[in-house]
Amino acid sequence: MGSITDPFDSVDFSDLPPLARFTARDGTKLAYRSYARAASAPGEGSVVLIHGSSATSSSMHPMAKAFSAAGFTTYALDVRGHGGSGRKGQIAYIGQLEDDLTDFMHAVSPPKPVTLAGFSSGGGFAVRFAGSNQQQLFQSYLLLAPFLSQDAPTLRPDAGGWTSVGLPRIIAIAILNGFGVRTFNSLPVLHFAVSENTKAILTSEYSYSLATNFRPQRDYLADLRSMHQPFRVLIGANDEVYYPDRFADLLKQAGKDTAVIVIPSVDHIHLILSPAAFETSIEALKTLRSQR
After folding, report:
1. pLDDT under 70: residue ranges of the chain
2. Predicted local confidence at residue 30, as pLDDT
């Protein structure tokens, strides 16, 4: 899907920070990148960035640089199953991603206040975490075009062509999980429209465990209702994966009277690549700081 992958061809990665590592509770070394805040900018706390589906921390590089220049110490994670964190497309159990994020926070101790900012599937995982009993590890949440559910009215058919879902296999494995049988959770159930020349970097498929964990809970409205920390939702007006005009009504359905910020002339991937999106995101972060 060219609109997702091609824009990165023009990104300058010459100043990409090297991967650092922290040790998760299972002993695995997981990867992240660190961006110190600009010395000339006032300290604004920190931001932890969660990339979208199939991607790595490097996809958040332009946004991380913009945030650090604005005074936010910024971290971009390789979520387990992606990039330099574990085996591609695989995790050991559903719930491991929450454990990993908790371990990162304890190991690295980002300067407070800390915002968890997730893009697309990473935004869906941020919703999952923000609705959990660990939500107070972060003082606020920034949801960038978040995936909510395949059943949510915000999602275009097949995510605009980005995903191919093995629905019969998902249903079968889910039924087995209901009986406590998790033998088949490592089987692939979700495929992404990545090109052959990007498969060395991107993750082309997810196991059932990863596909289930890297998103909100099945009852995504319950996750939204359980979110008690301040949050903002941003999306591009030209998003080809989601329907931008449907997020506000969905949030109201969940009892959240939070404004959805729609950025003109921005599509899905340019939400994390365009200067206009960076400026709006930084304004949203500062607004979140003032609500504490």
Report:
1. 1-5, 159-161, 197, 292
2. 98
The whole-angstrom separation of Cα 260 and Cα 251 is 9
Please give the angle made by the CA atoms of 193, 82 and 24, to the nearest 5 degrees.
160
CA 167 to chain centre: 23
Pairing of strands 231-236, 140-144: parallel
Tokens 């301040």 belong to 230
Tokens describing residue 190: 């979700």
Confidence (pLDDT) at 172: 95
Q: b/e map of 108-131 (b: 16 or more CB within 10 Å)?
A: eebeebbbbbbbbbbbbbbbbbbb
Beta bridge pairs of residue 234: 144, 261
Res 159: pLDDT: 63
pLDDT at 209: 96
Residue with tokens 């960035």: 49
